[in-house]
Amino acid sequence: MELEHILVIDDNIVTTTKLRAMLSQIGYTVTEKNNPIDALRWLRVPGNSPDLILLDLVMPQMSGEEFVRQVRADAMINYLPIILLTGSTEVEDKVAGFEAGADDFLEKTISQTELEVRIKSLLARTQALRTRHSGPEATVISVFNLRGGVGTTSLAVNLSVALAQLAQKKIPLVDLALTHPHCPLMLNIKPENALSTLVNWDDSVMDAETIEQLLINHRTGIKLLPGTLSTIEAELVLPGVIDRVWPYLRAKYPFIVVDAGHELTETTITVLERSQKILIPLAPDLASLQAATDVIKILKKLGINPRHIQPIVNQVFPYDGLKEKFIEQILGQKIMAHIPHGRSDFIKAINTGIPVMVENPRSKVGQAIHALAHKLGANKLTDGDKSFEVPSLFTQARKLLNVT
User: Fold this and answer.
1) CB-hemisphere CA count at 13 Å for 128?
2) How many CB atoms lie within 10 A of CB 352?
3) 250 and 336 within one domain
4) pTM
5) CB atoms near residue 47 (< 10 Å)
6) Are strands 222-225 and 216-217 parallel, antiparallel or unpaired?
7) Each residue's pLDDT tens digit in the chain (404 positions)?
8) At 142, is the secondary structure helix, strand, or coil?
9) 271 vs 261: CA distance, rounded Å
10) How far is residue 309's CA from residue 302's CA, in Å, rounded to a whole number?
11) Using CA atoms, how far apart are residues 231 and 46, in angstroms rounded to an integer?
12) What CATH number should be reported for the domain holding residue 316?
């Protein structure tokens, strides 16, 4: 069982050392900070998530009250329980601390027994509230196949648009086709930053605002997160780079769509392991079926839940191919969706930078992708949430194209 994590902040090194010893003996993991400004920067780095903050009320760099205010004003960390430590018995100090957003006050002379009781009580209360009120994390949908030419990127882009339309919310599209990224082309976007540029960035600047600056807003509702700016940067995007943005994306958005490309790298595997759905597009021919079969076998050997793996037949050629029943028999599972032939629609979309779900949402291709998006997002597109009401695709397309 993972130990609960306490962040201790006090400008006095003797105090932080004493508290670390007490908390470690109780059974907590402890991080010490002697500067509240440094502590605030550390907290805003995705992945740094203590279970509770214990800090001094009076510090030269920033008061405990101001620290609490800044934490409560930051959507990424405002849920954290905070206990202020004070050597004062003044009621006014406690009132000011509570007004700033502190959860509890403790005197610095507190015994280890009382410290343990107060922390456990606050952690239990906070966990109950978080369980009751916290929203679900994003559903991660990755599109992947080791074989090209089956519409992996087209499906990822258009599925992102469809989910944004259905949810009426922004949807991040993460481009992890690192050696041959085509998402920007299909959205007529020229990125200036990408995941690869994070390699040279200091962790201390990785806050919510910085991550949002990496995401490129598109009129479709997509927020594109490019993987690389050039092929030579592909080797820079390692799992650690993904970890710097992943907690924020999971907490902020209802869905994340990933174009996972055609290469099985350490980074790709990391993202596929974190995906709730892995879509495997395949053409209805023997070569594509063999490739899809190989991919599914590999993913299962990697320990990925078979229920997360969903084959999608993409009719990339105009003539009839293998029958779905035969494909399902070879794969040993049902096909989740069948995208009808729409070569002219997809070619036009690539050449114009306007996705099919915008240019021609009422086409057979558009309707099939819309149905797939609804199936994938069914759990989050219901429950009477009016923010998820579904306007007609035709109305949305006209709006996006500024047609009156």
Assistant:
1) 6
2) 12
3) yes
4) 0.67
5) 13
6) antiparallel
7) 467 899 999 999 999 999 999 999 999 999 999 999 989 888 876 567 799 999 998 898 898 889 999 888 877 788 899 999 887 666 776 777 788 888 888 888 888 999 999 999 888 887 765 544 455 678 999 999 998 889 999 999 999 999 999 989 999 999 999 998 999 999 999 999 999 988 877 665 667 778 888 999 999 999 999 999 988 999 999 988 888 888 888 888 999 999 999 999 999 999 999 899 999 999 999 999 999 999 999 999 988 889 999 999 999 888 889 999 999 999 999 999 999 988 788 888 888 999 999 988 899 999 999 999 999 987 776 543 443 444 444 444 445 545 43
8) strand
9) 11
10) 12
11) 27
12) 3.40.50.300
Contact 161, 325 (CB under 8 A): no
Q: How far apart are the first and last CA of the chain?
A: 59
Q: What is the largest CA-CA distance in the chain?
A: 83
Per the CB < 8 A criterion, the answer to whether 223 and 217 are in contact is yes
CA pair distance 388, 383, nearest whole angstrom: 9
Location of structure tokens 């196949």: 145
34: domain CATH number is 3.40.50.2300
314 strand-pairing partners: 339
Is the domain of 246 the same as that of 356? yes
Q: What angle do CA 254, 260, 262 make, to 5 degrees?
A: 160
Both tokens assigned to 203:
């962790």
Q: Give dist(CA 44, CA 42) in Å, integer.
A: 5
Domain that holds residue 353: 139-400
